Amino acid sequence: MPTYQQFRLPDVGEGLTEGEILQWLVAPGDTVADGQTIVEVETAKAAVELPSPFAGTVVELLAEPGATVAVGTPIITIDTDPGGAAQPSPAPAADAADAAQQAPVEQPALSREAALSSTEFVPTPKPEREAVLVGYGVMSGSATRRPRHAGGGPVRPTPPTRLGGAEVGRAVEQAFAGAETVTPTARVRAKPPVRKLAKDLGVDLTRVQPSGPDGTVTRDDVRQSVPETAPARAVVSTGLERREPVKGVRKLMAEAMVRSAFTVPHVTEWFEVDVTRSVKLVRRLRDRPGFEEARVTPLLLVARAVIEAIRVVPEVNGMWDDAAEEVVLKEYVNLGIAAATPRGLVVPNVKGADRLSLPELARALTELTETAKAGRTTPSDMSGGTFTITNVGVFGIDGGTPIINPGEAAILAVGAFRQRPWVHKGRVRPRWVAQLALSFDHRFIDGAAGARFLAAVGSVLEDPAAPPRTR
User: Among positive and negative, which fits the CA dihedral 165, 171, 174, 176?
Assistant: First the structure.
């Protein structure tokens, strides 16, 4: 007799309450393995692929693509013992008493001939707390699986699982690791950076046609094998106006920006810099050993300049802790890069950017931006940032007044690198010039500290070979 299991939408992103089904990767009648990726879901933080916790045959998809479902809601039914004999276990006395007081829940047609069991996630109760764009201070709780035999009785809804900050990264990694157990990549020839890129972009290396020496998979091979993203959601149009639903990343980004703008006293300072030497250095680096697998752009040197300047003015790499009434200064740099994607603004960060060499930083930035453009940024990629760069120059913009990312103290906007008339060595000459704009939390960073930081960043861009100067 078949045994049905229902998979409930889990919380994979630090206290999120709902997710949108982007696309199903299985259909009724398909056979799935334990850990196989079955659905792509967009949460308020990122698009993630979820693995099946069961092996068996898909009976029913309980949510259509485009539907927004609450965390804890069943989204798929899987027959874990197709054609076999079920071994029901007696329900606990307390559950039996509860079941007797509740009305029966309507089951799928096949369930009239089969027992329905459900795997529920039962977390330790914790107080609710609001999530932010880049997760901080979230709830954590122990979660256990409790199999229940319904035996004609109802399946009771249970609260969603909440994952703590450290657990979020592990949860996402386990989700992707589960998919890899189905299609192992151990025999594929690929360097570790290429494997990481494939994992970030959701590419199965066993299905990539290698073009490198001795059948080695290259970065270009992986990029050319990126699966197509889900089609754009429908909009409502009357001919005079268009209405699009605000969901997922875009919704949380809007909430986070409003909260930051109206709770943090922003101050913005500007500085124009002669970046001619940096432009020349970028051109030279593109041909140097160690940079072959990276896309070398001015952003690389801006990131390096920011890291050097943070060592001189560490206040900008801190945060204001309202609850503890303390200023927290971070002694590490998780460098965030604001990226515009079709799903909205995301701010993934390079973990430990201050410990990377210039070639390593170049590769990390390349992987970060490519992953974001492909819509594969995970919640763990966006958590724990300490300072953010927003490169508005890539859109041909000279500058702006950026809003600080929640949980941080400052953000640097970098304008376009343009040739302008500039006084150089007493003469007006054409030079490459860029505008820097620093927004900072004025509760503990004063104008002098902001000016010193801007001067330090500018001095490194003016002369990349010299140490930072604060004038």
Answer: negative
From CA 461, how far away is CA 308, in angstroms rounded? 11
Looking at per-residue pLDDT, the higher value among 69 and 183 belongs to: 69
Q: What is the CATH number of domain 184-223?
A: 4.10.320.10
What is the pairing mode between strands 37-42 and 47-51?
antiparallel
Rounded Cα gap, residues 403 and 253, in angstroms: 11
- Return d(Cα 417, Cα 279) in angstroms, integer: 8
Three-state secondary structure call for residue 461: helix
Our answer to whether residue 442 is catalytic in this structure is yes
Instruction: Give yes or no for a contact between 407 and 136, defined as CB atoms under 8 angstroms apart.
Output: yes
pLDDT value at 114 more than 80? no
C-alpha–C-alpha distance, residues 325 and 317, integer Å = 17
Domain coordinates of the chain in residue numbers?
3-180, 184-223, 249-462
Lowest mean pLDDT among 228-232, 245-249, 433-437, 453-457: 228-232
Residue of 306 and 70 predicted with greater confidence = 306
State the CATH architecture for 3-180.
Beta Barrel (2.40)
**Which pLDDT does position 404 carry in this prediction?**
93
Q: What is the pLDDT of residues 199-220, one digit of tens each?
A: 767 788 888 889 888 888 888 8
Half-sphere exposure of 341 (CA within 13 A, CB side): 27
pLDDT band at 368 (very low <50, low <70, confident <90, very high): very high
3-state SS assignment for residue 17: coil
* Cα angle 14-338-45, degrees, rounded to a multiple of 5: 20
Rounded alpha-carbon distances, angstroms, from residue 22 to 69, 141, 230: 11, 28, 6
Of the chain, the end-to-end C-alpha distance in Å amounts to: 79
Catalytic residue among 149, 266, 424, 442: 442
For residue 248, pLDDT beyond 80: no
Pick the CATH number of 249-462 from 3.40.50.10490, 3.40.630.30, 3.40.640.10, 3.30.559.10: 3.30.559.10
431: left (phi over 0), alpha (psi -120 to 50) or beta: beta
SS3 335: strand
The pTM for the full model equals 0.57
Q: Of the candidates 312, 295, 389, which has an alpha carbon nearest to the alpha carbon of residue 348?
A: 389
Evaluate if residue 317 carries a pLDDT over 80.
yes
How far, in Å, CA of 449 to CA of 393, rounded?
A: 25
CA within 13 Å, CB half, 414? 22
CB 179 within 8 A of CB 35: yes
Q: Are 160 and 19 in contact (CB under 8 A)?
A: no
